[in-house]
Amino acid sequence: MQQRRKKLKKLQEMGINPYPYKFERTHTSRQVQENFEALQNQTVAVAGRIMSNRRMGKAAFFHVQDMDGRIQIYLKRDTVGDFAFEVYKLLDIGDIVGVAGRVFKTRTGEITILAETLELLTKSLRPLPIVKEKLVNGRRVVYDPFTDKELRYRQRYVDLIVNPEVKEVFIKRSRIMSAMREFLNKRGYLEVETPILQPIYGGASARPFITHHNALDMKLYLRIANELYLKRLIVGGFEGVYEFAKDFRNEGMDRFHNPEFTQMELYVAYQDYHWMMALTEEMISTIAQEVLGTMKITYQGREIDLAPPWRRVPLFESIREHAGVDIAGADEATLRRVAEDLGIAVEDGWGSGKIIDEIFGELVEPKLIQPTFITDYPLEMSPLAKKHRENPRLVERFEPIIAGKEIGNAFSELNDPLDQRRRFEAQMQLRARGDEEAQVLDEDFLRALEYGMPPTAGLGIGIDRLTMLLTDQPSIRDVIFFPHMRPEKTH
RNA sequence: GGGCCCGUAGCUCAGCUGGUAGAGCAGCGGCCUUUUAAGCCGUUGGUCCCAGGUUCGAAUCCUGGCGGGCUCACCA
Question: What's the predicted TM-score (pTM) here?
Answer without folding.
Answer: 0.92
